[in-house]
Amino acid sequence: MTEKCGVVGISLADRDAARPLYYSLYALQHRGQESAGIVTHDGFQQHSHVEMGLVGDAFSEDDIAGLSGATGIGHVRYPTAGSVDASCAQPFSVSFKSGSLGLSHNGNLVNADEIREELAGQGHAFTSDGDTEVIAHDLARNLLEEDLVRAVKRTMGRIHGSYSLTITHDDTVLGVRDPQGNRPLCIGELEDGYILASESAAVDTLDGELVRDVKPGELVVLHEDGSGFDTYQLVEQEHTAHCFFEHVYFARPDSVIDGKRVYEVRRDLGRKLWAESGIDSDVVMPVPDSGRAFASGYAEAANEDDEAVEFAEGLMKNRYVGRTFIMPTQDERERAVRLKLNPIKSTIEGKTVTIIDDSIVRGTTSTQLVKLLKDVGAEAVHVRIGAPPIVAPCYMGIDMASREELIASDKSVDGIADEIDADSLAYLSTEAVADVLETPQSDLCLGCVTGEYPYDIDGEATDREVGRPSVPADD
Ligand code: 5GP
Ligand code: MG
Fold first, then answer.
1. SS3 98
2. Which residues are near ligand 1 (CB < 6 Å)?
3. Does a structural domain hold residue 96?
């Protein structure tokens, strides 16, 4: 049920929210391509349209026209290996005695099964095996007994894991970020209302202003008339667990996450990579698109060190090929890399080349690229990676493959260099990542590179005192 997704919520003064929601989902498309959906509320009734596929294919003009109401939420869902399942598409919507709820979730709970069992025992019927539905039912139950803020607080006291949520409760739009702030969520101001979104790029797309990030453990309630918002710090946690991989790979470079522009972070990581493991070569070349900002920082730092290295875009990307990840077999993944990237022979032939990518997961991309570059006449191929080795799976919402598939889970860096046939290979240190993010390691989620998680996960080690979030006594 591991899901990395994009969420959004909008509340406007006096016009339908569907079209701005639709545009903002376009801006978040990179966060999920499996399904897209919007739920709106017109003051009387909830409307929903959720479909498999890309944003551009999921909505017709009629669909958007049917989504009336000045408030609503949206969702894009990431394809997870083997679970192409319409029942998990979002926003999830439910009607109950005291109104209607819509819910969009980015992240992953680690105790969803426990809560599901308990709720099922109390007569709640579940239509999917997703953890989002668990949150919706828990909240719906609490809303029968308590006001909105207390109901959300009670649910936050029960769920453990990562969650950035946008919620509609009738025509009220809410945003919630988990107490460790694992996934991003920000607040933006629009000309005639407010927006909550996974990434600030969605705010930019609507010509809005980024107000700030939602704080870990905070609830944001947008005013129904689009005039502002109220906030409630519902859960305090000593340490955050921001996902560093959002900055390394997942987020758009033009987004600002937890106060940092992702593009600048990637360039600074590239500069660190040069400082830690720079190697003399004729050409520095990004693996497009994810390696680009890293490579430009790396080449810039190299040139400042008088290395006079050429920066070249020697790998052309076919932008119509989907992500290699969703190919089911290794053979298809290898074919996909070849379809996706083609080297420009003249920039490579007879030269020593350093290729820069953000990460190595299974090792498919780098193995193929080293071979390709050597085939077109590279004299040597060095590989530099802007993140530490990924040694363990992600349980918090990034679908990275299982432990056995991760090339670094059972190999040393030298072993991997051999396997991918690189003349040299180096990764960035976790210290460098923490340094660039100006965040201590104890406030980051580094589970995939350390194998120790900031959550209490069955069968895995943890790097901190966790347990359930401590919910302050009701005031
Ligand atoms: P590999 O080919 O080693 O399995 O994967 C490495 C490539 O996948 C890198 O170019 C990196 O940008 C990309 N990548 C890293 N993490 C993810 C992810 O979670 N999903 C997808 N689709 N690609 C990823
Ligand atoms: Mg890539």
1. coil
2. 249, 287, 290, 323, 325, 357-366, 398-400
3. yes
Dist. CA 111–CA 323, nearest whole Å: 30
Domain at 165, CATH number = 3.60.20.10
Check whether the bond before 91 is cis (ω within 30° of 0). yes
* Together in a domain, 344 and 207: no
Cα 323 to ligand 2 centre (Å): 9
5, 88, 394, 448: which is the annotated catalytic residue? 5
Q: Which mutation among 341, 361, 402 tests ligand 1's pocket best, with the greatest number of atoms within 8 A of CB?
A: 361
Predicted confidence (pLDDT) per residue in 261-276, tens digit: 999 999 999 999 999 9
The CA distance from 54 to 52, in Å, is 7
Considering every ligand atom, which ligand is closest to the CA of 33? 1
Please check whether residue 80 lies inside any domain of the structure: yes
11-20, 73-82, 304-313, 350-359: segment of lowest average pLDDT: 73-82
5 noted as active-site residue: yes
Among 169, 249, 175, 251, CA closest to 214: 175
Domain interval for residue 297: 261-436+444-452
Place 91 in a pLDDT band, splitting at 50, 70 and 90. Answer: very high
Provide the whole-model pTM: 0.94
Closest ligand to Cα 369: 1
